[in-house]
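Worked example

This section walks through a single chain of length 289. The input is the sequence exactly as stored; nothing has been trimmed or padded.
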Amino acid sequence: MTVFSHRTLWLSDIHLGNRDCKAEFLVHFLTHNKADTLILVGDIVDLWSLKNKHFWPESHNQIIRLILKRAEQGCRVIYIPGNHDGAIRKFLAYNLGAVELYDQYTHTTASGRRILALHGDQFDSLVCHSRFYAMIGDLGYDALLFINRWWHLYRKLRNKPYWSLAGYLKARVEQANQAIERFSRAAVNYARQQEVDGIICGHIHHPDIADIDGILYLNDGDWIESCTYMAESHQGEISLSRWTDKPHRLASHNGFRVDKPAPHHRPFRQPEPAGEPILTTRRKADKVA
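Given that input, the structure is written out below as tokens.
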């Protein structure tokens, strides 16, 4: 069995306990990938969904077991709660043994740069200015996921590869694109205040790599529709990849490689995802496929 080795992996928005979690893809990913450090960037367990309806198949247990197994094998596991598992934040002061809890965490890459990880729900007030429109957006997204669930089943029965209808439709809604733009801008402004080289979030279910005004903006996506992860190679390359029926790389950033030394006033590091690169880091005006 081939196992890909990384320096660091970032995963978020797994939503265990939600029937839209693509657990079968994530189990396969965790079986075939290992890292020195695994950073879980929020919404790993969907306590909101579990409160409304109990849904916890064996595949969700497998994911928990695989993460803990990696921790037992020496992988450092860092858990940053999000809004759907926000109740876990009350345990930040406790030592949970194999899993470290943080509200936000600054990772130093192989080349000495610093990447701040936090879920991103902290920026909600800057992204959506009205509770009413936020509620309408949530209802619309729930409807999209319902359609996507049946679309995925239909394609699976016809032996067709996974393709996110929800992601396709969402990308064509102007208001959604504007919210994504405001979110990335808020994240970059916060990163600049914290004097770090980059920031990685989840929360908005929109995977991305972008150089925005000299700050590296990263979003590792989700396992509800995108099935994506962010990785740092042992040489320090940052990459964004999708892991479904046919894993492939979506984007990469080489500016943090070890052979590109960091400025003296800042330190940095990175893993090797499967698949070939199909595009490299975009600037703020470009889009990730």
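What to look for: The CA atoms of residues 38 and 77 lie 5 Å apart.
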